[in-house]
């Protein structure tokens, strides 16, 4: 991960960041905004994307079955701090607000999702991951899952509580955020039908 601060030479806001990442020179690249500084995020790889897709698919099927909520993917930005601004891109988020596809925010989300999912990338350091989790929880996200593709486990994180580590067929839950959700942890890492 590299900082782009030296290129920008100043701290920027979430709104300026949105305009900056849309520049033609930044197409196909991934960034986050940390305390006003732009950080470039390298691509994570196929297995990471596969696990993200599984998590998103499971959550989407859950939303369809209960006819409530929706899923966002592809590091959809969530504002987690102001003055200086920070924008994080969780791998998967789940919302239960009243927005429709027509009136959905086109900018970064200012209202937090009820659930955010961070799938550990090959370059991630645990301190960085836990800092992202802390920012999301302090912004009002009710539950954050930290999904580790290599260890094949899930840490369920909630504000004011120790993370709960689950693996194999143990259930991944979302607490009060999505009280009716439960899925065996190993489904996040499995090919369909296997």
Structure at a glance:
With 194 residues, the chain is α+β, with helices and mostly antiparallel strands. It has helices spanning 5-8, 14-21, 46-66, 126-138, and strands at 2-3, 30-34, 37-41, 70-73, 78-81, 86-88, 92-95, 115-119, 143-148, 153-157, 164-167, 171-174, 178-184. The protein has four helices and 13 strands.
Describe the structure.
By secondary structure, this protein is an alpha+beta fold. It contains four helices and 13 strands. The chain has a six-stranded mixed beta sheet, sandwiched between helices. Strands 1-3-2 form a three-stranded antiparallel beta sheet. The longest helix is centred in the first third of the chain and has 21 residues. The relative contact order is 0.13. The mean pLDDT is 92.
SSE topology sketch:
Blueprint: E1 2-3, H1 5-8, H2 14-21, E2 30-34, E3 37-41, H3 46-66, E4 70-73, E5 78-81, E6 86-88, E7 92-95, E8 115-119, H4 126-138, E9 143-148, E10 153-157, E11 164-167, E12 171-174, E13 178-184
Parallel strand pairs: 8-9
Antiparallel strand pairs: 1-3, 2-3, 4-7, 5-6, 7-8, 9-10, 10-11, 12-13
Quick tags:
globular; six-stranded mixed β-sheet; three-stranded antiparallel β-sheet; 24% helix; 194 residues; tt1808, chain A; alpha+beta
Radius of gyration: 16 Å
Unreliable sequence segments:
none
Query: What name does the CATH topology carry?
Result: tt1808, chain A
Kindly report the average pLDDT value: 92
Q: Major sheet: size, sense and barrel closure?
A: 6 strands, mixed
CATH hierarchy class name: Alpha Beta
Class inferred from helices and paired strands: alpha+beta
Count of DSSP H/I helices: 4
Total number of β-strand segments?
13
In percent, how helical is the residue content? 10-25%
Biggest sheet strand line-up:
4-7-8-9-10-11
Give me the CATH architecture, please: Alpha-Beta Complex
The helix-strand sequence is EHHEEHEEEEEHEEEEE
Shape: globular
| Alpha carbon gap, first and last residue | 35 Å
Beta-sheet strand percentage? 25-35%
Please, how many domains?
1
């Amino acid at each position: 991960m590299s900082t782009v601060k030296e290129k920008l030479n100043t701290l920027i806001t979430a709104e300026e960041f949105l305009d900056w990442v849309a520049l033609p020179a930044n197409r196909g690249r991934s960034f986050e905004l940390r305390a006003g500084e732009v950080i470039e995020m390298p691509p994570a790889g196929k297995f990471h994307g596969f696990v993200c897709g599984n998590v998103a698919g499971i959550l989407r099927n859950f939303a369809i079955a209960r006819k409530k909520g929706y899923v966002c993917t592809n590091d959809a930005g969530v504002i987690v701090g102001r003055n200086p601004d920070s924008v994080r891109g969780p791998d998967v988020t789940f919302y239960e607000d009243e927005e429709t596809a027509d009136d959905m925010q086109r900018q970064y989300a200012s209202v937090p999702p009820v659930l955010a999912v961070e799938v550990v990338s090959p370059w991630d350091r645990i301190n960085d991951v836990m800092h992202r989790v802390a920012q999301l929880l302090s912004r009002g996200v009710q539950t954050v899952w930290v999904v580790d593709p290599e260890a094949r486990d899930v840490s369920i994180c909630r504000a004011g509580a120790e993370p709960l580590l689950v693996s194999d067929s143990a259930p991944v839950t979302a607490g009060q955020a999505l009280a009716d959700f439960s899925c065996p942890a190993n489904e996040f890492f499995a090919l369909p039908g296997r």
